[in-house]
Prior knowledge:
The chain has 9 helices and no strands. By secondary structure, it is mostly helical. It folds into 2 domains: 24-147, no CATH class; 157-224, no CATH class. The chain is globular and about 70 Å long.
Amino acid sequence: MSFFQESLFDPPEQVKIAVNQNHELVRLTHLIPWAALVNLAMNIRSNKVKKETGPQPHYRQLLGAVALMAVKNLNYRDAEDQIAHYAPARYLCDLMDSDWAIDHVTIFDFGQMIGSEGIQAINNEVLAVAAKNGLADPAIVMGDTTAQEAMIPYPTETGLMARYMELLGKNVKKVAGKFQSIKTQVKEAAKKVKNLLRNSNLFAKTKEQKRKVSKKMYHMSKPYTNRSNPF
Length: 231
């Protein structure tokens, strides 16, 4: 009579997994001009900031995440899950031998850093390479990659409120005198509105959830839109 005995040791948390070299994501990894895309992203960042501070972004890995989202039409959450648990996706992101993890917030922040035009340029390049080599539906490239629609955030009520508070926070630096004490208050409100917009983009899926975020942003920005009491 045979019987099964459980192992006395816990299964390893890290294992080496071989990827099929014919997998579409593995093949795409070898076709994408990564150096050119990294240089593009770096140039965009240097043009947007006066002085670069802090650690450099993981350009190669994050560009792999953007490529994955473009080819597979994934949202931020699904991209995070694929990169964490799917070997070909990790290969595309150059993470096979890395302990660094990419979450949906990191991908979102990277997209904000390089902007919609940067995302569009990267999507165009990736989708063109993928379609040319039979790794993506040519229809998604629409025949002309320069016209390929990227992940561009269209103006919304919440987006406009956040933009207003951002501009107000920048301009309040110029005031002095009796308005000097209000600077911190305005800057803090602008920061909170920005965080609300970010959470809405990442987590608010239903109309009701988006409505609640919009209501919070409205009440937070309302005191600064009153002309009779600009501060």
